[in-house]
Specification:
Elements lengths: L3 E9 L30 H13 L2 E5 H10 L9 H9 L2 E4 L11 E4 L3 H11 L2 E5 L2 H9 L5 E7 L18 E9 L6 E9 L19
Parallel strand pairs: 1-5, 1-6, 2-3, 2-5, 3-4
Antiparallel strand pairs: 6-8, 7-8
Pfam families: RibD_C
GO molecular function, one term: 5-amino-6-(5-phosphoribosylamino)uracil reductase activity
Protein name: Deaminase
Length: about 220
């Protein structure tokens, strides 16, 4: 059975996914709201995130997120989040990068060459592969339908500016809602999506059957 690729992202209501974890995580563009997720988390979304982490047997990251993880998690193998740190430390980490970075975190591997072929090889090697954060890389995967499940934790906060998975100049895509789950007492919702296609259907509300597809 082919392995599955999950994309895990924390976003605001207006789609901002930049620097949820801390003030210094990503200040590109003068982003001033790093760590916006922390005050809104509780035991429900924490348990959902941990369930996904414990189920994975490989991490697939963009270069920037890899650098953030590599500078933090290997140094927190003991303490409050030791179970997460040890899981990340133990499993293979694959890094998508156009350059040739030095990957010092053990069990780290560079993905080069043809992305479709590389992902096909990962699916044969692993059962459950998770992309965490890695917004630019996640955009590529979604644009090309190179994923099985997109997991969006949507938090009840609006930031106005910041990096988004879905940008104003991004390509179209059609997604299928697989599940919608409450994720915290604060009103956070976990939305799970699958890929449907790159060309959304269109219709005409003035027709007897408004769902009749008019687009390609």
């Amino acid at each position: 059975m082919s392995g599955r690729i999950h994309i895990d992202l924390f976003t605001t209501l207006d789609g901002v996914a930049q620097a949820p974890g801390g003030p210094d995580e990503d200040t590109d563009g003068g982003f001033a709201f790093g760590g916006w997720q922390a005050p809104l988390m509780d035991e429900t979304d924490g348990a959902q995130v941990d369930e996904g982490i414990q189920a994975m047997d490989a991490l697939l990251l963009g270069r920037r997120t890899y650098d953030i993880f590599a500078s933090y998690w290997p140094h927190h193998l003991d303490g409050p989040n030791a179970d997460i740190a040890r899981k990340f430390d133990a499993i293979p980490k694959y890094v998508a990068s156009r350059g040739e970075p030095v990957l010092e975190w053990h069990h780290s591997h560079l993905l080069g060459g043809d992305l479709v072929a590389e992902l096909a090889a990962l699916r044969k090697r692993h059962r459950e592969i998770h992309v965490i954060g890695s917004i630019r890389f996640a955009r590529t995967l979604v644009a090309q339908g190179l994923f099985d499940q997109l997991n969006l934790w949507v938090y009840p906060i609006v930031l106005g500016s910041g990096k988004r998975l879905f940008t104003a100049d991004g390509p179209p895509a059609s997604l299928e809602l697989l599940a919608a789950e409450p994720a915290s007492k604060n009103g956070t919702v976990l939305l799970r999506y699958g890929w449907r296609g790159s060309v959304p259907a269109t219709g005409d509300m003035g027709r007897d059957d408004p769902a009749t597809e008019l687009g390609p």
